[in-house]
Structure formats: structure tokens, C-alpha cells
């Protein structure tokens, strides 16, 4: 099979709905020749139903990135799914969560437990996931790609998730630094606002849509996850062999222009 990811095996986290960037990443990865393994947390029945809409079947593994047993056993679970001698060529980190009180505009009132949860799930989990997958990547190298939202500015209502995304960006740079010697690249795709399940939990999401409608040099469609998914697949491929610690903006150009 030909394609950008022909002969590669990729782990994709965060497939929850067909509208998600992760789902379209998994779909495009399969279309480009990759074998895909999925992880899900919580609503596994729903994830399994959504996974059946992919071009080809993909095994599904339960993974809670705050569960040390799940993380410690992830490599073995992948081996069980794909056979002995298994390896991973790519890992997609599409995991983020902030409690309701960490979003919505009352930034200064958020308690430290909620802040800690947002940072652990949305940023520290990148390091946790990479280390859990490392036994399957350290021999041959590979690519890690995470999903980001531009954290250089303070967005309305995004609050501690914005801080968590800034931490994710820093974490990605440090992972890139420490694993480069093993041939493992780590990059992020900073997508513009997409109307996903996660987006529905962000109060004032329509404010983002209004900003993009007004400022994007390229037209931006909040219902189309594919442009971001294409960038993820490209970064998983061999076409970026010496790119690491980078943030690729797929946002219609909003990051590049002022008000």
C-alpha cells in the first residue's frame, strides 16, 4: 500500500466523536497506509462505535493517562493487539480536560485542585504517554504529534486551559530535546477553533468563531477538522525528518495577524 504513512503503525488517542480532529487523523492515517491503534477513556462503547466508521478496523485500548497501571501496561496491551515484535512509528496526543470552574472567565477564583487537574491531563499527559510508548519506539525512532491551541495570548473564557496549553507547548519542547537522540521527534499542531465535543465545554466558544471570522486571512470553517488532521499526518510522516520542538499553526493565519 502506498501513501505518506505506508508501513507505519500509529497510536491515536482522543477519538470520541466523528467531528474530532483525532478521528480524522486516524482516518487519514489509514488512507495513507498506516496501521492505527486507538485509545479511549470512559465512554469506550461510544468510541468503539465511532471507530467502526474508519476505513478499516482499528483495535481499541482503554487508557486513562492519570492511571499508572494503564500507562505501565500500555506497551504490553499494544503488543497484544498487533503481535510480538510490535513497534510504534507514531503517537498522536489528543487529550485535554479542565474542570468547569477552570473555564468561563473567573480565572482568579479557580482552586488549585482544578488547576492541577487541567495541567496533569492536558500537559503532563504528553510526557506520560510518550514514556508509556517509549519501549515500542526507542529502537527505531518515530514521531509524536500533539494537538494544541495557540497559547501565546490570554483568550476570553479559556482561562486555565490556556495555561495548560502553554504548559503543553513547553512540555513538547522538552520531550523533543530529551528524545531527539533516539530519533524521536515531538511537534504540535495548533489548530483554530473546531466545533468538537471538547469545544462544547468551553463557555463562549462563539467568541472564538467571531474572532476567526473577522481575522483569518484564509477562510476558516469551525466544522471542518480535516485541515488540522492533515497537518498531524504530515508531521507523522518521513517528510519532516529534522523538524522537532515545532508548533505548526493550522488556523487560517490568525496567529500571524493583529486585530
What key attributes describe this structure?
259 residues, alpha/beta, Rossmann fold, seven-stranded parallel sheet, 39% helix
> Can you summarize the main beta sheet?
7 strands, parallel
Beta-strand fraction estimate: 5-15%
What is the architecture at the second tier of CATH?
Answer: 3-Layer(aba) Sandwich
Give me the count of strands.
7
| The top level CATH class name | Alpha Beta
Helix content: 25-40%
Number of helices: 9
State the secondary-structure class. Answer: alpha/beta
Q: Classify the fold: give the CATH topology.
A: Rossmann fold
Show unreliable segments: none
The overall pLDDT average reads 94
The side-by-side strand order for the widest beta sheet comes to: 3-2-1-4-5-6-7
List the secondary-structure elements in sequence, H or E.
Answer: EHEHEHHEHEHEHHHE
CATH H-level homologous superfamily name = NAD(P)-binding Rossmann-like Domain
- How many structurally independent domains? 1
Describe the protein's architecture and organization.
This protein has nine helices and seven strands, in the order E-H-E-H-E-H-H-E-H-E-H-E-H-H-H-E. The protein has 259 residues and is of the alpha/beta class. It has one domain (9-254): 3-Layer(aba) Sandwich (Rossmann fold), CATH 3.40.50.720. It has a seven-stranded parallel β-sheet with strand order 3-2-1-4-5-6-7, with helices on both faces. Strand 5 (142-148), helix 6 (159-179) and strand 6 (184-191) form a beta-alpha-beta unit. The longest helix has 22 residues, at 112-133. The termini are far apart.
